[in-house]
Amino acid sequence: MRVLLATRNAGKIAELRQILAEAVPSVELVGLDAVDDYPETPETELTFAGNALLKARDGAGRTGLPTIADDSGLAVDALNGMPGVLSARWAGLAKDDEANNALLLDQLAGLDDARRGAKFVCAAAMAWPEGREVVVHGEMPGRIGHGPRGANGFGYDPLFIPEGYAVTSAELSAEVKNAISHRGKAFRELATEI
Fold this sequence. Notes:
Helix content: 25-40%
Oligomer: single chain
Strand order of the largest sheet: 2-1-3-4-5-6
Structural class: alpha/beta
CATH class: Alpha Beta
Shape: globular
Number of helices: 5
Order of helices and strands: EHEHEHEEEHH
CATH architecture: Alpha-Beta Complex
Radius of gyration: 16 Å
CATH topology: Maf protein
Strand content: 15-25%
């Protein structure tokens, strides 16, 4: 079965391919670059689940393929859950990871580790062309470090220290990260629906 992941983010595609290879090896996962070009669906909803479902429906409708989409981000306790659905654009519309991380560190400057709690949140949706839909959720609790470390991730990974670990998400191997990550948890649950 061919399934579309509604993203051009190579990191997300690689992550989901690895998870699905273990859970449902018969699935061929493709990204947006493998289908007829269409503009990416704007994330206009106020929740992770709403954005994920919007993108999954659009992909299934445009391509005729069962489509998976996620919306995920970082919820920081000291920022009342922000950046939340604005995580990718926290420092502006350019989706600049380095600028987002710099802004987050500025906003948390002076806070000790006990006040730097955060969690990664993921809502993953799958929509089939005939109209069936499912949405699942995953979370990874942790805290924000005081500076970036590691090169194995993207987004806020160089700043995020998962609960129970002394290293950032960007310092973990792909296998460990996928086992504990918000996206890994959500996608493994979604794999049972495929």
